[in-house]
Here is the input.
Amino acid sequence: MKKITLILMLGLLSTGAFCQQKADIVVSYEKKSRNWATDSLQKSNMTLLVNSGEAKYFNDVSLWTDSLKSTPEGKKQWQEIIMAACMTKDAGGGMSIDLRKGPVKKIHDYIFTRLSDGSLRHYTKLGDENIYYDEPLSEMQWEIGDSTVNILGYDCVSAVTDYHGRRWTAWFATDIPVSFGPWKLHGLPGLILKAESNNGCTFRATGIEKTDRIISPMYSPDAYDRKDRKKALADEEHYLDNKEAIIKSKYANVEFQGRREPKKYDASRYSLEPDYKE
Here is the structure.
């Protein structure tokens, strides 16, 4: 793969909002994390739009879904696409809908990081609530190591950090001098191309390209309520531990098929930020 030479535009970035919103590169990542419901590793594809001053981390299917649903015309178009992809007619004339067949939003994370603000904003869905919160970039402090690995043709240096109850090891490429990476990872003198936590979650870059895509703001931000991060994570654990009862209390006619063994959420195993338990 031909290496990308990133042209830093720090002078231009300080002169206009338009330049701040335009990405220089787009990075694709494969994320592997353990699913709480099945205790199996699951893969997801994530995207990072980045320039020298800001970054946006998201899933492209989710971005496509939210961009369409942000307008009445787009929402109608989205419904037509989903129905065409997911609806099946049987021989008797009946219809069924299987959402697993279509481009359905499954990942709710959007993470915006800006050096000028010195903060990070995370939009997500925890439990049954759409929420967001801010946190300072200063919470992540790295110790740079001496081991190296080559990823996509870039020589990457290792670094470790303790962050929100997890130890992370990351590998960053100094040839791409932007201080961002997948998820919330940031603060190194080069783009993070690989990272792994001590609960088995991993990110690995699968592609890097030049781009002129705009780092668009959040669609429908008014649909999200500001929350305290630790309180939101604790509320999510309560929701997962009591999901059926909570749903039944809201929708009296809902019935769950089959007996389900009660299973408690283990933050030490599944959460990327288990410090809310401290």
In short: The CA atoms of residues 67 and 219 lie 6 Å apart.
